[in-house]
Design brief:
Layout lengths: L5 H20 L19 H22 L4 H29 L1
Helix pairs in contact: 1-2, 1-3
Length: 100
Amino acid sequence: MKKVTVKDQIGRVAGRIAAFQWYVDHPRLEDGRCRFCGTTAACSCISNTKRNLIYWENRLAVLRAESTLTAKEVEKILKSSKLMVKKREQDEMLERLENA
């Protein structure tokens, strides 16, 4: 069984933060539907996502305090996660355009 390090935990939390931040920044698809639930009506998805984002940002702060990683190292992990999420979303958008 592999021991889970604080760095591993920070990586997973950074991935969640990046995904939630992407959704908060881009809540609607091109056709006006909610990116999460698919409805065109007003929904509670965005407020739930903002609440989740705040939770994971607080969790990252706790992990950052527990770790020996520098602030630059943590920011590098977070930036890497954001780039990964951006690439995934772009790939999904291209796939939707190809299938349309």
